[in-house]
């Protein structure tokens, strides 16, 4: 790069940095939904139908951005909520976007916080995707800290195929990298939050989103 190219490079630097590697990961959008119940806001959760991926788990509505249907990721969050929970999109108000999540399973999740002016008996859930919908007061999570666990993330430069033959995923030995990279190495810890409620266990990214929102409520 010549000296005169520096000014051109500076112009291409983003004012709001993105996420390096976003195009190599799975991208999802989630709407953390609040509804008023008895003069208090509640989080609305859904339990995923047993027949779909991650069946039986508790989560917020959401899914993948579809460029054929969605003008932007905010519209995607509303669309997925309407499709899964069966409430009118015009009754959903987006309050804003909170921090993007990156899971250890290489998924990037853009998170929106919104409200809906509906009653719980107005939900018409998509029975093919959702087993049930329920609400829990935000105050419950303000009063109850989540359980916290830390799991170990391990990276592997090789693996075995179905026939037991070694498959080289990253040629660390060939590149003469330190021996610790030739097999598997410790990639760090990942913290998991858990809330136990009467409907089951809220954990993983959903619990992390709840915790993030609740912490923002504290003075």
Comma- or semicolon-separated keywords:
single chain, 219 residues, alpha+beta, Nucleoside Triphosphate Pyrophosphohydrolase, 7-stranded mixed beta sheet, 3-stranded antiparallel beta sheet, 12 strands
Would you write up a description of this structure?
- By secondary structure, this protein is an alpha+beta fold.
- It has a domain at 22-145 and 201-217: Nucleoside Triphosphate Pyrophosphohydrolase (Alpha-Beta Complex).
- Helices cover 18% and strands 40% of the residues.
- It has 4 helices and 12 strands, in the order αββββαβββαβββββα.
- It has helices spanning 6-11, 73-85, 138-143, 204-217, and strands at 26-37, 40-48, 58-59, 62-63, 92-102, 107-116, 130-137, 147-156, 158-160, 166-168, 184-197, 200-203.
- Strands 1, 2, 3, 4, 5, 6 and 7 form a 7-stranded mixed sheet that branches. A 3-stranded antiparallel sheet has the order 8-11-12. It has a two-stranded antiparallel ribbon with strand order 9-10.
- It is globular.
- The mean pLDDT is 89.
